[in-house]
Specification:
Layout: H1 2-21, E1 24-27, H2 34-48, E2 50-56, H3 60-72, E3 76-89, E4 96-108, H4 112-129
């Protein structure tokens, strides 16, 4: 019976970890353009009310830039910033190297929905003029 209880408890931990991953964006500074991540973060905030931006090494500057764009446009508020170093291995048998990592948790601002609605209306007016 104890084994079953532990398995159920483990399942809840796994579910909450899976839910947390639903709003995480792992940013790369080489794979996608900057505004791909900005727009993706907006969509994640619409769905989940918050988004976690994460980046390693050289992508840290990109993560900070994305967060600042969202904050300066009035779409997001900063909830938490975590910095740390993580051990990475370039090869399967290679020695570990340390890389800097940043995680920024952003939440929806109070005017998030208003700003997005205004932007959508402006885009519709522009299309009508064309």
């Amino acid at each position: 019976m104890e084994g079953l209880t532990e398995a159920v408890n483990d399942m809840h931990i796994t579910e909450s970890a899976a839910n947390k991953k639903n709003h995480r964006i792992q940013v790369s500074n080489t794979k996608k353009p900057l505004f791909f991540y900005v727009n993706l973060a907006k969509k994640y905030m619409q769905l989940n009310n918050e988004v976690e931006l994460s980046g390693l090494g050289m992508a840290i500057a990109t993560v900070v830039t994305i967060a600042e764009i969202l904050k300066n446009n009035g779409l997001a508020v900063e909830k938490k910033i975590i910095t740390k170093t993580v051990d990475m291995r370039e090869d399967a048998g290679g020695r570990p190297i340390q890389k800097a990592k940043i995680e920024i948790l952003l939440g929806k601002s109070d005017k998030f929905d208003e700003i997005l609605a205004a932007a959508a209306e402006e885009a519709n007016e522009y299309e009508d003029q064309s």
